[in-house]
Amino acid sequence: MREKDKIGAFEAFSIGVGGMVGGGIFAVLGLTIMLSHGGAPIAFAVAGFIALVTVYSYVKLSVRYPSEGGTIKFIVEGFGNGIFAILLNNLLLISYVIMLSLYAYAFGSYGAVLLGANNVEWVQNVLAAGVITFFAIINLMGSSTTGKTEDVMVLIKLIILIIFIGAGFVTIDTARLEPATWTSTTSLLTGGLIIFLAYEGFELIANTAQDIKEPKKNLPRAYYGAVLFVIVLYMAVAAVAVGNLSLSEAEQAKDYVLAVAAKPFFGQAGFMIIAVAALLSTASAINATLYGGGRVGYLIAKLGDLPNSFEKRVKNGYEGVIIIALLSIIFAISFDLENISVAGSLGFLIIFSLVNLAHFKLCKETGGNRFIAGFGFVLCSGATLVLIGHNLIHKPEALMSSFLVLGMVFLFSYLYYKIEKRHSILNSEHH
């Protein structure tokens, strides 16, 4: 790639921010408030801290192993391309599917509110399935406007969120944010861990490592800048929402809480603007995640870890996009919000803990600090156990959904690995 075609730190920063401030904040804010009450901003800080420590491994690995494969490349470098790497790569792909279903669920919730069909399940399901189908078709057409549309959408949603924060701080009731209103420490921590997936988008920066100018200087700026910016943004949004709504109001509107939170200072117009911003945000997140998911599926198939259909071209996209879209629709209409969130956060915590472990193994190659990489592994692994333990006690059905998904991924990966190994042995004997 010519130097003038390469991207700078700001573009990579924008990709990271766009990936994180997708549908996540609109989809899971109500859930965080339910779990953490007045401590919702702290829950976002907890999740952000884990992301920030993990970013260290991503920075070092991206500089040492620049590739459009990003996370996939790091897993293969750290663990080889055996059964373990196949499991992790397929877990990454299913985590993308879960993110898509979460965004579609949020799109359906906000869309139903705008249509005056609050909490009407079939309307939400039709909207969720419709938006995934629409963007799957757009991705297959390979529209060159996709990237430009994404930039505009990211800018619009950030402007709306910053105006929301600025105006909302004026009407905050600070008593609602005092430590006395916080839930227990474990609930607070779990609140942060369940919405950890709201931060996972920083890993998209890894896919730009080949195309960035002066990677040693610009990659760290993009990664750390994006995560720190989003931590502050999320904490401020959570503070405004909690400070302007009672817990009963937040619970009643948990699937579209941000729109309701704008009412005290912007009235009905604010409610409509935030609802439209949520539709834009979740739509842009679906568009970007389908594009990224299609590429991830293609790269995993190239490694021989997925069926060839993920590599096949359909018009200007990949057949894998159709498979990912269909799975996302099934998830969006089959699971409730909390179940999807737990499964998604678990998936990314497992992946990030093992990326940290891969970096721990590769520290000599990257020139990284083994203590920080090891701390990242312990932090993500510990967070995974806390999330499992809390849900085991308080919400076992959410955990059942997660284990069902994980079990399917492991079973598929194991069987596929065995079948492929058998094929390659038979082929070598045949030749």
At the fold tier of CATH, the topology name is Amino acid/polyamine transporter I
Uncertain spans, ≥5 residues at pLDDT below 50? Answer: none
Distance between the termini: 39 Å
Q: What is the strand tally?
A: 2
Mean pLDDT: 84
Instruction: Describe the main β-sheet briefly.
Output: 2 strands, antiparallel
Describe the protein's architecture and organization.
By secondary structure, the chain is mainly α. It contains 17 helices and two strands. It has a single domain, classed as Amino acid/polyamine transporter I (Up-down Bundle), CATH 1.20.1740. Helix content is 77%, strand content 1%. The chain has a two-stranded antiparallel sheet. Helix 14 (337-361) runs antiparallel to helix 16 (370-394). The protein is globular and about 60 Å long.
Secondary-structure map with pairings?
Elements lengths: L8 H12 L3 H13 L3 H25 L6 H9 L3 H32 L6 H21 L3 H24 L16 H10 L20 H30 L2 H6 L4 H5 L1 H40 L10 E2 L2 E2 H16 L2 H25 L1 H4 L3 H25 L1 H35 L1
Antiparallel strand pairs: 1-2
